[in-house]
What does this fold into?
Amino acid sequence: MIYTFANQKGGVGKTTTAINVAAFLAAREKKVLLVDVDPQANASSSLGVARDAALYSIYHALIDQTPLDQIVMLTKRLHLDLAPASAALAGAEVELVAAENREYLLKQILAPIAPRYDYVIIDSPPSLGLLTLNALVAADAVIIPIQCEYLALEGLSQLLHTVELVQQSLNPQLRIGGMVMTMYDSRTHLALQVIEEVAKHFPALIFRSIIPRSVRIAEAPSYGEPLVSFDPKSRGAQAYEALTVELLERELQI
Amino acid sequence: MIYTFANQKGGVGKTTTAINVAAFLAAREKKVLLVDVDPQANASSSLGVARDAALYSIYHALIDQTPLDQIVMLTKRLHLDLAPASAALAGAEVELVAAENREYLLKQILAPIAPRYDYVIIDSPPSLGLLTLNALVAADAVIIPIQCEYLALEGLSQLLHTVELVQQSLNPQLRIGGMVMTMYDSRTHLALQVIEEVAKHFPALIFRSIIPRSVRIAEAPSYGEPLVSFDPKSRGAQAYEALTVELLERELQI
Ligand SMILES: Nc1ncnc2c1ncn2[C@@H]1O[C@H](COP(=O)(O)OP(=O)(O)OP(=O)(O)O)[C@@H](O)[C@H]1O
Ligand SMILES: Nc1ncnc2c1ncn2[C@@H]1O[C@H](COP(=O)(O)OP(=O)(O)OP(=O)(O)O)[C@@H](O)[C@H]1O
Ligand SMILES: [Mg+2]
Ligand SMILES: [Mg+2]
It folds into this structure.
């Protein structure tokens, strides 16, 4: 199963959600590959892999056809492998424009290796450009993290429109796996209004598990650890574990 | 004076800082044009202009050479005009790749109209693609909002490298106007560490004014108002006013 975490709005918790769901799946002994297609390489560094530490990155697979086998690396966690990003990816959007099958490249490079894993989790950049398009075309389902803030609602229709376009032509199997409300701050009335708004329009998609705004979640990346090992008893860890369980339950109903 | 607010890291407060500095400059009777080149059009909606309300947007100026005069619209605030974005901009990055002078287009469309304003403030998307490049080439100076979080430090070297490349070839006059620390949460030790880190490496660039994390700041966009009118006595408004004053002081020293 290939999940892409996408939302063109910046800073809504795409990376944080991708790495923590990946780590909780690995903790349940699922074999997981995390693919970082964001030039910021935050998923890589949140797992303790410095941005340009790896010799090869997703950039080389997309641009030079380097086999993914040579790129995938082990992380500190059992059952969780990583295909790292690098800064060079920032140029890939322009370099890929003229490529043959430019939207299918990631799907093609994942094809030979995906069967070895139970899950492939793809973290995408904050845009609707070619890298995110590649991530949507390669995926079975897209998970949409939504920050509990007013501006985060604004871009939702644009994202859903893009998903529809992808479903119509590039990837008809693409499903919307769900919408995850993130950074919920119970001190603000606005946050609850945003959740109610999303629940009203997308009752079947919104996950019950709501991720609280929490200092421990923001601190974990500086230790290069996911929450399951950084602070497993924290509210953040419990929320992400509940989300992972919900995701597994939804799969049974497909 | 043309300022661009840029940082490829998502959700760090680019839009919030751009609109509030623009509004405080307008409140001091400076004539200000706010230019929104982010396809999310958050700057437009934070000032009460719905994303596709305007007939024309920056997209039409960049792609169809529609004169900026036809695009600029008045906002509720005196002395603050807006050149709105639209969702169509999301496609502009790909459409612009083959254009002649593709990095200079924004600079060229601003040239005839910029002299009518004391300030042009440009809000850019969370990427280092062609739209942000256009914003850096058009600017006299770039202001870098930095969220007080660990992941926000990660991308700083990549952004500074891009600014250097622009200074070497596309826009030798480009200065770094400063670095603004945003969403400072005094409850977390990490936030202070991030500020100390930035102050250590960039003592001459970091602004003294630090923007606190505050619910009122996040609520203002849902009312379509900048802080100067939404809640002028709030901590957020006072911090943004102090920042604006500091920016004006720095100009005197150039
Ligand atoms: N629930 C949370 N509580 C507090 N901080 C959080 C939470 N989730 C994420 N963060 C922090 O907020 C910032 C943004 O999160 P993250 O980087 O995961 O978002 P993103 O959508 O991947 O951003 P980008 O658009 O830049 O890729 C990070 O500094 C992260 O550590
Ligand atoms: N100081 C603050 N305190 C609390 N919330 C804030 C603050 N500054 C911005 N916000 C909120 O945080 C979110 C991100 O801010 P904003 O949209 O300005 O960042 P951005 O860098 O422009 O994002 P993007 O990368 O998507 O363009 C918004 O919902 C905004 O209302
Ligand atoms: Mg991210
Ligand atoms: Mg913005």
